[in-house]
User: Which sequence fits this backbone?
């Protein structure tokens, strides 16, 4: 098992016992962030994208560095927080730094040599389609990062990637237009890096509602015929169903409280409600800046036909002000304040993936930051801010068991099998917790946590 930790630490563990086999500690410059979301594994190498804007290949058996390449200059605000995506003989990464006035991109590197094979800029340059959606030179510092992992359809040979918000985040007066391809899902040819199609969830975003939630690919019947679908529970509070062959919107519906738009229109664009843009005095909007969901993974169970997502119900007051760009400095043009007297809360929600209709929900005590895992045994696993890993009946949402880890859970579980035994693992704090069924089972009663 390969695990990454804060500050680009990395470990290889015996998946049966947790024994450490090797460690990697990157020497980072001062004043970089700490978040890292995992490895890609391909052949005899594991791949990490780093906080100082490098892409690194390690020997999977020893942890030794095979190659290390610079993607961009850290001092300009570029860095990586995602787990790379391995596609055929390539390693795909998307850059972070949208709050620092970067120009976002998605890169492909040779898994063997580290040579960059293509780059797709998430903000079109002069002469490219979509450039007209940026006012003046705002495209040069427009953000649109690609800071979460994408997904891949080998049959269509397309990579699907969510793109973040434009910058400055809350002040849009000097970047008039839809600001493509911010807040989009983009479908990219895996061999060439060329854009096949895009769909924009929140045109001219002013609330920092990145579309970086992982796009989920489902092959299922929709309106009476088999379809290749892409579904996403978006940070803006709407659940979307797209035809992933062409990007056509098939359905959109709120899955959380939404006060900024009435609906998603027939043209695929939100029908905006008045008085929802940030102002110097502040504007109260739902969802809040974290969004109705965020980077944590949803999951899907083909047996139950349900889509599981951790949802936050929170509203914020959004402020804006003009701001000049300075290289490597925060460039957000505003801020937020929590709504007075309102306590954020959350739930694990099971949705019909075709319509977004709610089938069941389990309310958390606090707004969640952890993803979900679905298994073939009709279980759903998820963590909460009280430090519990919880197992649910995937069909009904009934809590089956829970275990306290000692600190808030901010990660998604994973499952694997070794020597005929299935394990479920969750990182929590600085520890990794592994669970499995005992060889002999004693029936116990699950008690609802108080």
Assistant:
């Amino acid at each position: 098992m390969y695990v990454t930790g804060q500050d680009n630490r990395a470990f290889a563990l015996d998946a049966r016992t947790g024994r450490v086999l090797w460690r990697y500690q990157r020497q980072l410059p001062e004043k970089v962030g700490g978040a890292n979301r995992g490895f890609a594994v391909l052949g005899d190498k594991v791949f990490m994208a780093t906080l100082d804007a490098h892409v690194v290949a390690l020997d999977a058996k020893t942890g030794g560095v095979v190659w290390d390449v610079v993607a961009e200059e850290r001092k300009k605000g570029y860095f990586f927080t995602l787990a790379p995506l391995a596609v055929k003989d390539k390693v795909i990464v998307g850059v972070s730094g949208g709050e620092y006035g970067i120009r976002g991109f998605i890169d492909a590197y040779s898994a063997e040599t580290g040579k960059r094979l293509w780059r797709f800029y998430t903000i079109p340059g002069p002469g490219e389609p979509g450039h007209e959606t940026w006012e003046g030179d705002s495209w040069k510092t427009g953000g649109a990062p690609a800071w979460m992992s994408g997904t891949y359809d080998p049959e269509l040979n397309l990579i699907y990637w969510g793109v973040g918000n434009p910058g400055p985040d809350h002040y849009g007066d000097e970047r008039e237009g839809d600001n493509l391809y911010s807040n989009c899902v983009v479908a990219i040819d895996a061999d060439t890096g060329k854009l096949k199609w895009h769909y924009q969830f929140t045109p001219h975003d002013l609330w920092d509602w990145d579309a970086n939630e992982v796009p989920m690919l489902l092959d299922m019947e929709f309106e009476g015929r088999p379809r290749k679908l892409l579904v996403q529970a978006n940070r803006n509070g709407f659940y979307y169903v797209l035809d992933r062959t062409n990007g056509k919107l098939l359905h959109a519906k709120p899955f959380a409280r939404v006060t900024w738009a009435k609906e998603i229109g027939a043209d695929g664009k939100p029908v905006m409600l008045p008085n929802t843009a940030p102002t110097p005095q502040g504007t109260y909007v739902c969802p809040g800046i974290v969004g109705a969901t965020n980077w944590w993974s949803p999951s899907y169970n083909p047996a139950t036909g349900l889509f599981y997502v951790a949802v936050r119900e929170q509203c914020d007051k959004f402020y804006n002000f003009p701001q000049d760009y300075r290289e490597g400095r925060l460039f957000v043009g505003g801020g937020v304040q929590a709504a007075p007297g309102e306590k954020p809360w959350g739930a694990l929600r099971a949705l019909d993936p075709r319509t977004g209709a709610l089938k069941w929900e389990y309310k958390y005590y606090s707004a969640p930051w952890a993803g979900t895992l679905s298994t073939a045994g009709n279980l759903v696993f998820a963590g909460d801010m009280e430090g519990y890993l919880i197992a649910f009946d995937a069909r009904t949402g009934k809590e089956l068991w829970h275990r306290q880890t000692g600190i808030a859970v901010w990660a998604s579980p994973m499952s694997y099998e070794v020597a005929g035994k299935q394990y479920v693992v969750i990182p929590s704090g600085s520890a990794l917790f592994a669970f499995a069924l005992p060889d002999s089972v004693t029936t116990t009663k699950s008690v609802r946590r108080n």
Observations:
- The mean pLDDT is 95.
- The domain at 1-70 is CATH 2.40.10.480 (Thrombin, subunit H).
- Residues 223 and 354 are 9 Å apart (CA to CA).
